[in-house]
Amino acid sequence: VAAALIGTTLALTGCTAQQNGDAVTGIIPAPVEFELTGSGPFTLTEESRFVADGEAATVAETFAAQARIATGFDLPVVGGEAGASDLALAIDPAAGDDPEAYTLDSGADGVRIAAPAAPGLFRGTQTLRQLLPAEIERTDAARAPAEGWIVPAASVVDAPRFAYRGSMLDVARHFFPVEDVLDHIDRIALLKLNVLHLHLTDDQGWRLQIDAWPELTGIGASTSTGGDGGGFYSKADYARIVEYAAERFVNVVPEIDLPGHTNAALSAYPELNCDGVATKPYEGLEVGFSSLCASPERAVATDRFLADVLGEVAAMTPGPWLHVGGDESLATSEADYLDLVRRITAAGAATGKTVIGWHEMGASRELPEGTVGQYWDFVTPRDDAAELTNSFVEQGGSVILSPADVAYLDMKYPDDPDGPLGGKVGQLWADGPTTLEESYSWEPSAVVPGLAESDILGVEAPVWTETIATATDLEFMVFPRIAAIAEIGWSPAPAGGAARDEASFHARLASLGTHLDALGVAYRKVGGVPWA
Ligand code: TNX
Fold this sequence. Notes:
The protein has 532 residues and is of the alpha/beta class. The chain has helices at residues 2-14, 16-19, 54-71, 118-131, 178-190, 235-247, 263-268, 299-315, 334-350, 385-394, 404-407, 436-440, 471-478, 481-490, 502-519, and strands at 33-36, 42-44, 50-51, 77-78, 87-91, 102-107, 110-115, 149-151, 154-158, 164-170, 195-199, 201-202, 205-206, 251-258, 321-325, 354-358, 372-375, 399-401, 456-463. Ligand TNX binds at residues 287, 327-328, 358, 376, 404, 408, 410, 427, 464, 466.
C-alpha cells in the first residue's frame, strides 16, 4: 500500500501541467489508489448531464447544484445511458465493502463514480470536485478556467481508514451564526470528514433551544468569552444545520458538556445549584470552576434536567451519537463526579444514542455498553490519560483521538505572537504552538498504548473558541491544519511504520489552496507549502 500511495501522490503532482492545463491537481486526503490513464482528459461542457437513479440521483443533485452555479451550465440529473460528455453515478455493491468506499474513472469517454452506498458516491464527488479546476468552487459563474472544465484521465479506488473523521466547533465560547456553520460543513466535506461535533454548551454560553428549560437560551445564551455578545440556535436553525450536513453525509454530534463547564445553565436555573442560588454569568477564560450538584436534595431537578435536555437533543439528532462532555470537572469531588457521570451517561443512553465522553469519563466503571471515549491528552500520554482511555475499550466501547498538541486547532501557529493576529488569537497550553507538520506527522495507532486499530473509531480536530470570535479567525486557525487531520483519518497508514510523505502532502495542499482561495477561505499560508 505504501508503494502504491507514494506512486499515487507523485503521479498526482506530476500529472498537472500536462493534463489539467496550468492548474495543479492533487487530492486530499490521498486516495488508496490513484492512477493516471491514457485516454485524455474529460471536459465538462454545456452538453454534460449527470446520469443517476434513485439515491444516486440525490447525491448527483447535491454536486450538480454547486457545478451549475460555478459553470452556468444546465447540468440536468437524468436517468438512462451515459454518454462521453456525461458524469454517471451508480450504486454498485462491487465497488467496495465500506459504505464510504467508491471508485472513480474519468477520461475522454466520461466520468463514472461507483460506490456500494450513497455515502461513498458523495465522497467520490468530493474527489471529482478536487480534480476539477478550482473555479468549480466559485459562486458567481464569473470566470471559466482558461483550460476549460477539465478532469484529468484517472482511475481512483478509495475507502476510509477510520469510520469517524470529525471537526469540532466550539460555538459556546463564541457563537457562530448558522451561515458560518454551513460554510464550515461544506469545507470539511471537501476533505471527506464525516462528523461535525458541535460543542453547544459551556460556562460562557448555552447555544441550543431546549423547550422544557427556556432560560437556558434566555439568560444562558446572552454571554460569550470576552463579552462579545451571545446567541443560540433555535430548533429550526439546528434542523437546517443537521439537514445541510446530512446532504453531505456529515453526522452532527451535539455535545452538552456535563457535569463541569455548566456555568451558563447554573446561571439560568437556581435549582441546579447545591445552594439554590443562580451563579453569575461568566465571560472569562478559566475552566474547571462549575459543576452540576450531585446532592440528593437536588436530584429531582438535576435528573429532570438531564432527561429533558438529552432527550430533546437526541430528538434533534438523526445520527447515532450524543456527546455528554465529562472533561475538566475540577470543581466536582471524585465521588460526586462518578455519581454524576453514572446518571449523565444513563440519561444519554436512555435516549437510544451511543454516548461519547471526553477521556476523563473513563474513571467510571459503570459506563453504558459501547460508550466512546474522546482522548485529548498529548501524542505521548501523560498522567493517567492512557489508562482512562483504555477503560472505554474495557467496557466495550471505542476511542476517538484528538491529541491536543497536534489536533487542537486553536493552538497558535509558531510565528503568531507578533504576527498578523496580533497575538490575540490562539492558545499555547498544549505544548506550545502547533505546526502544520506536527498536525500531519502522528500515527493514531501509536498514541495510546493498548489500543488496537479496531478500538479506534477515528480522529477529530477540535477548535475551541475562547480566542476566536469571527469566521475569519476561525478559518485562519482551522485551515490548512485540518487537512492534515483529514488525511490521517482517511488515508492508509504508511507501511512498516514509515513516515508520511510530507513533500507530497505539501504539493497536494498547494492544489487544495486554489480551491480554498476560490471559496474565499481565509486560510493561513504556512511556510514550506508551494502555494500557488
Ligand atoms: C481544553 S481538553 C478544553 C476546553 C478548552 C480548551 C482550550 C478539553 C476537553 N477541554 O475546555 O476550551 O482546552 O484549548
